[in-house]
Amino acid sequence: MSEQQGIIQVTNLMKSYGEFEAVKGISFSVKKGELFAFLGTNGAGKSTTIDILCTLLKKSAGEVIIDGYKIGEGVGNNHIRKKIGVVFQESVLDERLTVFENILNRGQFYNLSKHQIQENYQFVSDYLKLDDIQNKKYGTLSGGQRRRADIARAIIHKPTILFLDEPTTGLDPQTRLFVWDAIKRLQEETNMTIFLTTHYMEEASVANQVVVIKEGRLVAEGTPNQLKEKYAFDSVHLEFKHTFDPEPWLKEKQLSYALKNSIYTVRVASTLEAYDILKKLEGQIQSFEVVKGSMDDVFINIIAEKGSVV
Ligand SMILES: Nc1ncnc2c1ncn2[C@@H]1O[C@H](COP(=O)(O)OP(=O)(O)OP(=O)(O)O)[C@@H](O)[C@H]1O
């Protein structure tokens, strides 16, 4: 496998559930060591795709190559399973066992020696800070503690690729930051490839590569910056004094705008252009806010089929 080819290569992947086509021929590639964000609305086909990439679900058509091995052919699936770790939306740990016992079991599943499991346990405990929960039964843990244990279990065999299906959904902001920090450290310090689905756009904004799918089709891909350039824009939100009607002025200046709840959202090429508008309309403005284009805009605009909101 060359660096160019990518550690994950998906070509024209399709999956049908009976008559229903959940994944309709998607192609993309993930480079080794990158943080890859796989985005889409609910029901877009993200979990279906992840389940296929993790060898848990059979594809209907197309080709998937992971770490040089084809899914569904020869020893491909066995090889792939040893190379990947998976954190599902739903937990798969045993509620009656402690965190340590759960992780130990998983290590034995991979035929790791006792010594190797101990060594790897230190490694995962360092990243997920397991000391305070390792002797607690999984069933008694809070949501955030469970997530730490889930990720620890998924990486006890030090996989090359870690699949994370919405790893931070439902966590409080502080726990979310902790889990996110552990994921980023794993990527940066161990060169683990991270394949992530998330509904949090601030997480996607630090990915190396982003792919967006909609109704089973790939609708956009690129780096966060490339996508922001294409689908997001800076804007200035303006509320005017009641005595002033801004529409003739905005039209004369050929500015693109939208009006909602008496707030005008005016699209600008840069925050400097916003400054220029504010200066020109000084005296007529009740309040204002200058807003930088974000990954949220990117997502909303892509999903709305490139329709811009102003
Ligand atoms: N076992 C199944 N049988 C029939 N349809 C299914 C099955 N699993 C998923 N689907 C359908 O396939 C589509 C894609 O589902 P999938 O769970 O892959 O979406 P998703 O992008 O992961 O959504 P979410 O963000 O809500 O997790 C949905 O319309 C879903 O209802």
UniProtKB/TrEMBL annotation:
Domain ABC transporter: 8-240
InterPro entries cross-referenced by the UniProt entry: AAA+_ATPase, ABC_transporter-like_ATP-bd, ABC_transporter-like_CS, ABC_transporter_ATP-binding, DrrA1/2-like_C, P-loop_NTPase
PROSITE patterns for the chain: ABC_TRANSPORTER_1, ABC_TRANSPORTER_2
Keywords from the named record: ATP-binding, Nucleotide-binding, Transport
A Pfam family the protein falls into: DrrA1-3_C
Molecular function per GO: ATP binding
Family: Belongs to the ABC transporter superfamily.
PANTHER family per record: ABC TRANSPORTER ATP-BINDING PROTEIN, ABC TRANSPORTER ATP-BINDING PROTEIN NATA
Name of the protein in its database record: ATP-binding cassette domain-containing protein
Source species of the chain: Viridibacillus soli
Species classification: Bacteria, Bacillati, Bacillota, Bacilli, Bacillales
